[in-house]
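For homework, think about our next protein:
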Amino acid sequence: MQHYPHPNLMKLWILIVQPQVFFRRLAGQPINLWFPLGISLSAGWLRYIALFLWIRHLPPILPTAVLKQLGVESNGNLLGLSVAVIGLLCWPLIGWGIYGGIIQLLTHCRGRAWQIAGWTHGSIALMGLILIGLAGLMPATGRVIPYTQFSALRPEEPWLSQYQTWLQIYHQVLREQAFLPITFWLILVGSLWSLWLLYWGLKAIAPTKAALNTSILTLWVIIWRIL
């Protein structure tokens, strides 16, 4: 029995190799936001996974002792879950919503705007997959003593000052890793590629203003990356 690729995987392949054909076909199909939403969320999630995989040999960046000082020792699991939900779900979701909203304002294409916003994140999701592979091969290494040992060396200093100093040491170790410049260039390539996909998506629904709208959205992407 012959097996055929999943339709959505075929769509991703066409998106990569023939974006103009992909978005032209998409403009004639019913609006479906679920798969584009999944792409947008995975574009954020995959980078977070790569980060945690990269620092897996170093001490936790949010130690239990800090959670206790914040007065959440009994609700530490709840705090961790809240941070995970906000970071892994809400932030990429907010980004997708705002991005689609700006496309909607520029093109007046209703639900199609969020569909395009999601699909154009495909390149960033692909870079996230590559980052996960590299993080597995190039874990961060260096001398970072656990926070509890560090704070024991300076017991008279306020815990917040201790934690800030410890984070500076932690970040210094991370800045020395070869993984960071690779991450920068991969994200840059993914972002530029995403703007290329965006141009073809806008050209399919508003061809006369595709270049202008892409320029406006490029400014938004720069601002969002800074945030």
